[in-house]
Amino acid sequence: MTLTLFYRPGTCSLAPHILLTLVDLPHEATHPPRGDAFKAINPAGAVPAMRLEDGYILTQCGAILQYICQRAERTDLLGGDDLRAQAEVAQWCSFFTGDFHPAFYPVFVPQRYMSDHSEAVLDGTKAAGLRLVRAGLDQLETRLIGQDHLVSASRTIADYYAIPMLRWVGLVVETKLAEWPAVESFYQKICTEASVVQTMEIHKITP
């Protein structure tokens, strides 16, 4: 049995799929079964999820990204031997998991958070989520001014984790990333990398 990544196109499962391609780790990538069949694999019913060779199901994007790097002996993507860089990679991954990713939920599925599904209430919920998205982009802009990577002078998993969420910005912000030029430059550059291009083609999506 080989590693099996369960993914859905355009979701945050894009990040570990890119990383598997980048480090050339043998794997299978497949769409998960629907409904209860997938919940039998991952009770949360969410992607990404990765089945290891022994059958264990690893979940949560940050954990999967870290596992892939350690399996491939690519600790440079985790910050290398620099303790501060390692901590910063963990910090930015936590930011994406705990702050930036959840900011999109009220924008995409406002009805999940409100018992009143009137148009005015749902529009207000979307607007509140969008303010959080913009706040996250402001943080990324501050970090990326004058540099091409979130941590250190080379790519880490934090950079690849950012990709699906920065792509979502184009779906919810009319000006896309134009208001955040450093973020826009970062995103445009990373989307030209071979592993990103190849994986987006598999997902049948564009930047």
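^ that was protein a. below is b, sequence first then the tokens
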Amino acid sequence: MERLNPSQERAVRHFGRPLLIVAGAGSGKTKTLAHKVEFLIREKGISPQRILAITFTNKAGKEIKERVKRVAGVELPWAGTFHSVALRLLKTKGKKVGISPGFGLLSEGDRNQFIKRLAHSMEIKPESFKSYMAHRLEDLREPYDQRLEPALQEYLRLLKEMNLLDFSTLMLYLRELLDKSPEVKEGFDFLLVDEFQDTNTVQYEIIRLFARENVCVVGDPNQCIYEWRYARPDNIIRFKEDFNPDVIKLEYNYRSAPHIIHVANAVLSSSSATWKELIPTLIPTRQEGEKPVVKRFEIEEEEAVWIATKIKGLLQSHRPSQIAILVRVGYITEPIERALSGMKVPYR
């Protein structure tokens, strides 16, 4: 194994009980997961075919596969997103929940068009309908709108009639499959879940039905970025209550300068979130770096001019590709772009 810090080492070698790894930003999470898979294969004798690693994005799935290949020298065939895992299982076992193996998957674009046509025919607003669908199918809320519920049932009926699934119904059918056919999970000896803070309610239920003692979830509720898509960072609290896991915190940060870490710790220490006690106090490992600067402005134009002036100065010693402007929402960049253009500062 590569050199690991003590927390990473404990996480890698933990076995026999549910485990919650709270991985602070830049704490070497992917490296830790790859070595955990290596440990499971080499020291616990678990076949790579029987390790299920669920990631939140295709990119993350590819990364964990590549890391495992590099670290352990083996392929990890069951590493992928919730949706890719559901697709594979339902293609082979979908008959157990009334799905034909030849079902098609509705793309997001086709789904949006389908919803628009159905909403128009039933004289409801497409956006309201989509929001209601998400509440019902992903957040698992009970029916609460007498006007929109019939439209949802018609949507589900039409999908079944055409032998189609969308990304939401993939999750629902996988949940039903695991509930009605618990033997499905017998095909796996270990479950790993990455970016756990971005799971929604139906995905948590899938994990709950899949998991036994050999389950490890990794996440940091303070890094949840998908609440607008009904992600539930408090699923970490639910997991703690449902599984009584051991908790290991990865607190060493290998990415950011010390001053950045100190600011982050100060901000997070004032949090009133229910998961506050789980969050590690990050420890910097790098030594270099400038102090963050906090500026207040009366008007946005004044702020934009300050940013443009600062960047123009930085370009004396930095490449444009080394400078970034982060904003909360896109429209905030408009006055900044005007200021950059006025000072002939290139940007894209």
